[in-house]
Amino acid sequence: MMEQRWLWLFALDVLVVCGSVFRGICSLRNLSNVEQQLYFSDTKGEKSYVASAEESVSVVGVMSYFTKDKDNFTVFLVGKGYGSHDSTKLISTRILQDYGDWVVFDSIIEASAVQANPFVLRYLHDFRFAFKDGGFVYFVFSRTLGVQDTKNFTFVSRMCEDDQGYYSYTELQLNCSTTNKYNKAQAAYVAAPGQALADHMTKSGQYGAVSASDKVLFVTFTSDEDPSTSAMCMYPVRSINARLVKIIDACYSHSGIINDTSAVYSPYSSKSEELCSSNSPKNMAERYKCGAEFLPSPLASKAEFALTAGSPFVRKGHMTAVAVAVEMGHAVAFLGTATGEVLKVHLSAHPEMYGRASSEGDKVNKNLLFDSSLQHLYITTEKKITKVPVQACHMKTDCHSCINLKDPYCGWCVLEGKCTRKEDCRRSEEENTWLWSPNQQCVEIKAFNPPNLSCKKTRQVRM
Ligand SMILES: *[C@@H]1O[C@H](CO)[C@@H](O)[C@H](O)[C@H]1NC(C)=O
Ligand SMILES: *[C@@H]1O[C@H](CO)[C@@H](O)[C@H](O)[C@H]1NC(C)=O
Ligand SMILES: *[C@@H]1O[C@H](CO)[C@@H](O)[C@H](O)[C@H]1NC(C)=O
Ligand SMILES: *[C@@H]1O[C@H](CO)[C@@H](O)[C@H](O)[C@H]1NC(C)=O
Ligand SMILES: *[C@@H]1O[C@H](CO)[C@@H](O)[C@H](O)[C@H]1NC(C)=O
Ligand SMILES: *[C@@H]1O[C@H](CO)[C@@H](O)[C@H](O)[C@H]1NC(C)=O
């Protein structure tokens, strides 16, 4: 199963499967019965080529909706890099049913700026992730700044879900480390940080106020300048939105200037800064959250206004995948590597790797998925899918080896004498009955007083 070959999306009861195997044509399958193909056609020509025929061209997508007249359709929004035999559409909206002149998989929005543009082929977009939040769709990708400059930078772009002209499409550069050493996104994941990580993020002063249930974008990066290492950086979605609004507002109302510095440009147009205005009313960015035909677009932040995450989690080798879960209020990152491992990292003020899973040797694909009960993780490589449990507490049979795991999922269940998740330990709500592994403390029974007691008598025992 090739990473680039497959794009899987879930909508209600339909599974969309796309692959380079069929020149990028997609099919629809029944999610309750994936063997059942509901739709596949290779006679509709170019319009049904959603993915790329080239394996090196990565495709990402999310389900969204599109309204027309009184109708509301499920569509999927696709971000795709440029392959030499493909259309130049960076972003497209694909319908999943026949409607009027449209057939399944038709690209139903024409927005020349991000679809038929001479710049597109020079930017070498590499889409890595797409997600939806609060009425917006986001894409995470790297690209260059044009022909002269072949250096890669990472961006997150955002647009409104039902934006039929892509007027709200805006790109924000993401820097990882203060020097942006880690410049090329490889994989990303959105999750709540949980209380402990949220507190650390807030205290660090780098991320603004972060709460346990906020969404945070976790991104792994490689470094073009130093291919021997990679890093993971975190960006609260709230901070991404706030910075995007600043950039958009600068262009709509302040000639593109923030703090006396030019903050914004138009990556897909030859007219550059003159596109921003100074005489429109001040609250245009608020009033036109999804842009409008008369407002400038698409916009991108200049590097000086990139959103920067200053203290990345750095590792030797390449981290090619990321997924994050929260257990006991603590965030755990599962980081896939180019050498086929999945590193387990307890994200705290000082992130600590406490374990590894699966070591098969093949690069872990960027899509790591939890099952619906969050008990298992699906790890995919070029050749196979492996399902591994998120924890294996029960393998440890005494308190010390349980505690030595330093695994946020595990703890020593005193009354049962077992290493378990908290939810699997009876009476774990009582004090000192379940000893959380990362706390590194076993309760030892040093001495009894009195040393023995008849089981027929009731007396106070001191330990
Ligand atoms: C999908 O599969 C389920 C279970 O086999 C079946 O009940 C349902 O009718 C199928 N849906 C379609 C659209 O064929
Ligand atoms: C269309 O459907 C989506 C998803 O079901 C929903 O979120 C959205 O509000 C609907 N839009 C309209 C205009 O009905
Ligand atoms: C940018 O990334 C591409 C792969 O997407 C790579 O081939 C190229 O060498 C990178 N550019 C630089 C300057 O390292
Ligand atoms: C603009 O400058 C102020 C004061 O130096 C600073 O607090 C603020 O973060 C700057 N804005 C941006 C978007 O960099
Ligand atoms: C982001 O990184 C680039 C170098 O890649 C640098 O020029 C720019 O100033 C950085 N932006 C911020 C806000 O640190
Ligand atoms: C129990 O303790 C008593 C003293 O309290 C002692 O005399 C007796 O030998 C102990 N019995 C055993 C089986 O240890």
TrEMBL record:
InterPro entries: Ig-like_fold, Plexin, Plexin_repeat, PSI, Semap_dom, Semap_dom_sf, WD40/YVTN_repeat-like_dom_sf. Keywords: Disulfide bond, Glycoprotein, Membrane, Signal. Residues 1-19 form the signal peptide. Pfam families: PSI, Sema. Its main location: membrane. Gene3D superfamilies: Immunoglobulins, YVTN repeat-like/Quinoprotein amine dehydrogenase. It is found in: Membrane. SUPFAM superfamilies: Plexin repeat, Sema domain. Residues 1-390 form the Sema domain. This is Sema domain-containing protein. It comes from Anabas testudineus (Climbing perch). The lineage of its organism: Eukaryota, Metazoa, Chordata, Craniata, Vertebrata.
